[in-house]
Amino acid sequence: MNNVNSGFIQTADFNFQLPQELIAQKPLARRDESRLLVLERASGKVEHSAFGELVRHLQTGDVLVLNNSRVIPARLRGQNSQTGGLFEILLLEENAVNDWWVMLRPGKRARVGTRIELRNLEGNPSGIQAEVIEKNEEGHGRLRFVGTPNILNELERLGEVPLPPYINRVGVSQMGDDRERYQTVFAQTPGSVAAPTAGLHFTAAMLEKIRARGVTICFLTLHVGLGTFAPVKAEILAEHRMHEERYDISEATALEINQAKREGRRVLAVGTTTLRVLESASGVVKSGNGRTKIFIYPPYEFKIVDGLLTNFHLPRSTLLMLVSAFAAPGETHGRGMVLSAYREAIWEKYRFFSYGDAMLVV
To answer: How does DSSP classify residue 362?
Structure first.
């Protein structure tokens, strides 16, 4: 649990300066060609490696847990049916069939009752409409879609890959590779509106190499939503509230992790989304569906996860705060360790964010 001192940690403490040219705009030619920075928690030592060398840092008996959620083409384009004004829609969470919470741009023009004609990828009318039926305190809209049995079934022809705003693309024509590369090779269950990016580095061959090492690989599902990436607006961390995200853990995965913990074997999480699901358990992982809004920041005592593979994250983000907590469990000095490692990564010109390089914290 976070102790009382955590209430005084400020969001500004997690700021750092990143040169614009280090924000990865495109994936590398091969997924597993990324660089790997290894941070040793006990000593603070930093090692520069390659992602292909990850297996060298794994041990026989380890359990490697990955998030197999599939990214949906969640960004839609539309036009106000009365004024002709253009809208960008980002699907956030499904309430029921054809009933979704979304982000709308421009949000102020999307008043309750506004009807939006959806366009296909060529910019032509799709025959599907969306009506704004509710707005919440955060400015998100609730849409009811008509003209289709299920909007989910239309996303392949209407939707764009929901790339984050720091990746620059001009039009759909520049997003040809993104449909494949902004998706893990093991993605299964559709539902995420952002990729679990730590998993993007893996190839099928890499996973087999890891299994051959004697490492057990298992999967869970957390549908990545706004909660993971929403900016921290509160000045004091304790005042920030996460959005809920849905997850599912199979019985086989729960059994594997719990047995590893009983036997003193390591559990390594691939990605902050995977870690958040596992740490939402109260010491014992249970199978089934659930929702989590856990916000992990220093100091935090970890119950399940012994190692974390992740990417390099945005300044002042909940993800950076989580990694800082993991670098020094139960302490607050992990922030300094991680920011020092980030400074070294910047000096060494690592690639940052979704399509960037990887970091292993053990």
So the answer is: -
